[in-house]
Amino acid sequence: MPRVGFSEWLALTKVVARGQLLRYRGGEQGYTTQFEQNLEKQIGVKHALTVNSGTSALISALAAAGIGPGDEVLVPAYTWVATAIAPLMVGAVPIVVDVNESLTIDPEDIKRKITPYTKAIMPVHMLNLVCDMDSIVAIAREHRLKIIEDACQAVGLTYKGRRVGTIGDAGAYSFNQFKNLNSGEGGAVLTNDDRLFTRARMFHDAGSYTREYSYESNEAPFTGMNFKVSELTGAVLHAQLPKLDPLISRLRARYPIMVKHLSKTNKLRVSPHNDPENAAGLTVILDTAEDAKKFAQNRGVDRLIDTGRHVYTNWRPIMTQRTFDDRMNPWKWAKRDIQYSEDMCSKTLDILSRTCRVSLGPQYPIPFMEWRGRSLLKAVS
């Protein structure tokens, strides 16, 4: 994540000095709007809408895409729980799909999980690791499915020359404390579709029927939520955006260094990557779960099965199909009986138990990472 420093402090000071903390007061040229315009230009997308979290971005994108009660949405078995929660918030149900060794949704299992009620795929670019979007787009086109890209953990990354979050019908970014852009909490909906953008903007702003916007697409106002951000969030993001690409460049520069060292042993292997030339995240696979557990004792290394709510078996409300009120339970609106079990994605559990994330340390100088790579090689040999 980028460091918070003087530029963020200065932007916040200006907002406080003006005394105008709301986004939609006194014109549309505040920090939040400037951030959206700059993000659109930098990422290469027609529309960006800032919201208060990555979760809100996913929900808004699904609502905008017309996903609702009775629909099924394919989500990966390894992702932050919000990916599976988001379909429920629009009345749809998540269908859990295995990941492959790239730690992203497995296109072959996508094909197996499609039913007549499937309406969308939510590929997740986990840990700065990008999905096989060529295969996913081909499947979606064949079956006429929407693609809502969850790029919350890969803000700014590219897949074969295109920024993730801009390849599907809509994308979602998170600006949580631990993401590539950090405003504590925050998110964005990305899309090149005018109507989808209009609907997302209505949904995030209680229908926004009192606003004067362009790209209204003759869309009749409908009720929505309140997912807006304040100018305080917009100010931090506006100040941080110039730091995004330098951060990614540092990650990319460190990836081959770590791979060079860790490829010298047969005790582990570097996980496959769907765009290795632009890799900015590193995971390794060991032979056994015990080997991975031992390797994870090294500083800067984490075994993925131990990452709590990122593993589907720990999504307790999902697995038990519980909502805040049983009358609002989307599983009751499904067009078939949906059942979950702890072993339904056993392939994913096996991969996660043997896979470790290795930090690329963008805050550290290159010589330190060379030393770090040699130290990890020594630890596993």
Task: Describe the structure using short key phrases.
PyrdxlP-dep_Trfase_small; transferase; 381 residues; 13 strands; Aspartate Aminotransferase, domain 2; four-stranded antiparallel beta sheet; PyrdxlP-dep_Trfase; alpha/beta; 13 helices; transaminase activity; seven-stranded mixed beta sheet; Aspartate Aminotransferase, domain 1; globular
What does this structure look like?
The chain is of the alpha/beta class and 381 residues long. It has two domains: 6-244, 3-Layer(aba) Sandwich (Aspartate Aminotransferase, domain 2); 245-380, Aspartate Aminotransferase, domain 1 (Alpha-Beta Complex). The chain has 13 helices and 13 strands. It has helices at residues 6-18, 31-43, 54-64, 82-89, 107-113, 133-143, 194-204, 231-240, 244-262, 289-295, 316-319, 346-354, 366-380; strands at 47-51, 72-76, 93-97, 118-121, 146-150, 158-159, 162-163, 170-174, 187-191, 268-270, 283-286, 301-303, 355-358. It has a seven-stranded mixed β-sheet, with helices on both faces. The chain has a four-stranded antiparallel β-sheet with strand order 10-11-13-12. Strands 6-7 form a two-stranded antiparallel sheet. Strand 2 (72-76), helix 4 (82-89) and strand 3 (93-97) form a beta-alpha-beta unit. Helix 2 (31-43) runs parallel beside helix 8 (231-240) and helix 3 packs across helix 4. The longest helix is centred in the middle third of the chain and has 19 residues, at 244-262. It is globular.
